[in-house]
Design a protein that fits this description.
45% helix; alpha/beta; two-stranded parallel sheet; 3-stranded mixed β-sheet; 5 helices
Length: 143
């Protein structure tokens, strides 16, 4: 899990505990350890992509990354992993190209000032959708 600013840490741990799955929380610091033998906190050096690089280098088939970072999701999919946004939406081989293109377009529009602001606030519904999506993804990988 890309733990920096991830709003669904507790939900990830809940699903992991239910299925006895290992969770790697990757961060460049500022995160508290979780009192669970299933959770391993990985602290990487400070840097823009240090956590992303660690995740992409260590993830593989039968792993799930939780991230809003589209380039990281693309790297994880290339390694055969699954990728979920914190709102439960899955990144897939079919959707990642369009997601990357849209990200680049929106970044350009923000840089020129044509669009300001960010994504809508994270909601209870997003949290619920994520919990359901992660449960389904975990069950698929376990089988």
């Amino acid at each position: 899990m890309d733990a920096d600013a991830c709003p669904v840490k507790d939900e990830v741990i809940k699903v992991a505990a239910r299925h006895n799955l290992k969770v790697f929380m990757v961060s460049d610091g500022g995160i508290r350890p979780y009192p669970s033998p299933l959770v391993e906190l990985v602290i990487v050096e400070q840097g823009a992509d240090a956590a992303d690089d660690w995740i992409a280098e260590h993830i593989g088939i039968k792993d799930i990354v939780v991230t809003s970072d589209i380039p990281l999701a693309a790297r994880c999919l290339e390694n055969g992993a699954s990728a979920l946004k914190p709102n439960g939406e899955a990144f897939t081989e079919n959707s990642i190209g369009m997601a990357l293109a849209t990200r680049d377009l929106m970044q350009g529009l923000r840089e020129t000032g044509e669009i300001t602001g960010g994504p809508r606030p994270f909601s209870k519904r997003d949290r619920s959708e994520f919990l359901n999506a992660l449960e389904v993804a975990a069950q698929k990988l376990i089988k």
